[in-house]
Amino acid sequence: xxxxxxxxxxxxxxxxxxxxxxxxxxxxxxxxxxQELSALTADGSSIIASNSNEVITVPVCSYIFNGxxxxxxxxxxxxxxxxxxxxxGFTAASCCDVSDSWCNPVDCSVETNIQFAWAVVTPKGTLxxxxxxxxxxxxxxxxxxxxxxxxxxxxxxxxFFMKRLLRKGGPNVLNIYWSNPLGxxxxxxxxxxxKRKHDGVVINPAAVTxxxxxxxxxxxxxxxxxxHWLGLLHTFQGSCESSDGIDDTPMEYAPFRGCGELPGYxxxxxxxxxxxxxxxxxxxxxxxxxxxxYKFTAGQMAVMRASWFxxxxxxxxxxxxxxxxxxxxxxxxxxxxxxxxxxxxxxxTASATEGDIGLYLQWRHEPRYIAFPFIxxxxxxxxxxxxxxxxxxxxxxxLYIGVKSSFVPVTxxxxxxVAV
Length: 420
Ligand SMILES: [Zn+2]
Prior knowledge:
Helix content is 20%, strand content 23%. By secondary structure, it is α/β, with parallel strands linked by helices. Residues 1-17 form the signal peptide.
């Protein structure tokens, strides 16, 4: 019955040009992703995350596609407004609109200390690592307009080629593709996704700040997707049986729709009455939509920050010749980007008390754990205590360090590097 009502509401919405209930292309998390998430909150990363004073700046690249009859649907000002709105969504200033009768402005969002700025592209078209700019008008701001009628709408096949050809930067760079995805308003990849070339957010250009998709003109859709990009699941992920991996988001049986205007979806819905709290209908990670969303919780903030430091950040380590680095935090089966400042060759050693270790070092490119080394990379595999040395090529600074465990899980992993 509920589904029929929703369908009727959808039909009414499409004929009247009213709000279409939200649909995100990110499905339920796999058991592997849930494990990653519980490890993220359980292990030392949560300690890093709790140090919430350090401001994280995420570099952003944006791609807009035009066809013959599709001239500049999104202006630069709209893109800048969207970035500003994204930034506001990650601060404690994100709140409901007091003109809405349901708004309780003391119950706003949290300060995440996660901010977003345009990545900077050099005249050669490469990304200037570590450089960002707040204004899209600034020289080199990573925003592209391309004549690509095929990418105005995408499905999983042409969307794959679009990302493969365009994506810029390492896992720290948020690539946003303004393309209308088949079957949803937007979707994003998780930080644990193994396919780096797919990484990013694909979003209907009409859902940009100031866009003309009814009910989505504020630009919160991007905030929802960036929540996924930083490791958050939907609040209804676990129904009433298990949570979304975060303690302070109440359990929810199924997605909430609309913002109180749809039959069967009152704002005080409590779909898991045996569990504490009413449904988190104002949370960015529910399905309520642009007009209702304004909130992240402290638990979500901790997961996003931990995800950043564990999977996305580029960490800078200054190496003195002959002086080993401090222990580098890595997880087996993960890989991490490190910027190692030195002009020498680098030898890294991975040790563990138990398990088999595959260690991989490669300048700038994605580690693939291949069995034999190429120039600019090295790999080794075997029992604990594995070392390999890689010579630093000119003008390369960012080294990927990857550790994998194939057969026996690694315990007490320690990775150190030294300039030799
Ligand atoms: Zn979603």
